[in-house]
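Repro:
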Amino acid sequence: MLGLFAGMLVAAAAGEDPQTVQASSHPILQEGVLDGCELLFQAPFKDHVYRNGGAAIATGAVIMLGFTNPQRDPIVAIKLLVTDLSGTAPDWERRNARPYSVWLMTDAMHTNRESLLKADTADNGGIISAFRFDKDFVAAFDSLIKTDKLTLTFNRKQGGADVEVPVTFPVDKLGRSAAYAFGECTLTGGREWQKRRAP
């Protein structure tokens, strides 16, 4: 899992086309049992808040964990590294930046800010934030599964304005995307968690 994320990070640093979204979904197993799901992505965007529309790449993951523990609700983590681009393609100059905060945004323009548990610097120099799984996540996940779209917001400094990063996940010939696979994984894990929790 970390290797796949690192591979995307290397791609961002090495010069792969920043105009296309790359994504994959993977189960997270604990002793052979499904404990979580992760959705990895790398998406281009333009920063109109801090960089006058400058091009950038968002490399990140949405991770849901805790299906094997019926004593606690599952948690969700968001991992994000921003790579700012300058110059012209294909000879981009690249600089990695850690966001100060990161959120998911629902179709109703709500974020999951109130469910934040902890934020820290990730192993790749970006940010990783852990959240309670609440109604805003349910709304965001429902929209993700139905539309293959996800919107992240982040800021670069405390109290700074947020940058929106819309991510549309590519669909294969069967009409499925990494977002669809992530949705199937979380639904399966959620059902198993409910069974373990039942008296």
